[in-house]
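Deliverable D4.2, example record:
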Amino acid sequence: MYRRAFLAGAAAFAARKAVGANETLRIGLIGCGGRGRYVAGLMSQAPGIQFAAVCDVYDANRERARSWAGNGAQAYSDFRRVLERKDLDAVLVATPDHWHAIITMLACESGKHVYTEKPLAYSVREGRAMVTAARRYKRVVQAGTQHRSAPHFAELAQLVRGGGLGAIAFVRVWNYVNIFPGGIGHAADGPAPPGLDWDFWLGPAPKVPYNPLRCLTTFRFFRDYAGGTITDFGTHRFDTVHQIMGPDKPKSVMAVGGRFVLKDDGDVPDTMQVIYEYPGWVLSYECSSINGHGLGGRTPGMRYYNARGADDRPHGMAFYGTKGTLIADRIGYDLYPPDPRYGFGGVKTPSQPIGGAPRKWMNTTDATAAHTRNFVDAIRTGAPPACDVETGHRATLVAHLGNIALRAGRKLEWDSETESFPGQPDANAMLYREPRRPWSIPG
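Output generated by the structure prediction step:
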């Protein structure tokens, strides 16, 4: 299945017409919150880019984006009006997660290329449908997992795949943030604020009364619209694990966790541990919303992603090999040689590492700007983007599998060819959510 998808994808990129280097790319921004405006600002730094349309169901966000884009930009409250425009080449989708699939697929159908913020899709089957649409309409669809455009991760992939860490049987991913004790707090249902179309904001999600915590900045704490920390933060790192390790098809998954400590209105786990089995190695994922420390250990002078204290490393990935240990995050990495002092009982270890990785560390910057530029270049040149929709889908589904295993309460075997749990109808039912009418997944 994946070989066929790869070949179909390559043929699609070869078949579509590239936009000339001197032609202006006209782009629409759909979802004008803080992240959408930030990514659009970075994308607009590439030569020959014009944001000609902005769209949001909330007047305040839409007006902020229109003011930023300039008088030449048309503002809309309905994304379908943006997709009707024949003069737009692409759209940037930065809506809440539950809207990604519908907008992306309709954008492809309308002939537009798409940059979709992570996580790619709300569910596994939505993600697969997005891949199908991108191939059918021969569009560039870039998943917004910007690690794929970071040079240091490409360097580490070359190191690991070249045997620089020896055999690796265990990989660890973690996301820690402390929002204890209040979490996101409590809020009563009530009327939506002026200028917000709440029913349109909900779209394919279940109809519920307006609540300020369900909307805008804290929507990811509710399963109706997102998958919690594992889909929000974990997806980036699952994609990087796939990039560095190579295999991207888990065989099984099991999970434990819950909302044990936080007593706010959110309904996603505040603590979660997921174990994935890949061929020949194990991936452990953990997240916490009540402690921001994460992994300890630092190199003097190094910067660590989202670190707040003197010793914490709240987000990252660790690769434990026979020739060394690699600990990496969004803005750098530490590489440690094997330590000969760590042996077991009477087992002798060499006085010096044999063929071990050298001690090394480095810092860099977030790669979102490079990732948006890569999207623009892919449209102009016809080359595949750094994180094509298929790649983004394979990373995102790992996060979804973790949430499904937690809800199922048992270990689940995963068939990556059929993208299903063999003989597990209750788990398979969680691979997709039927959209609320009149919305549907285009097919």
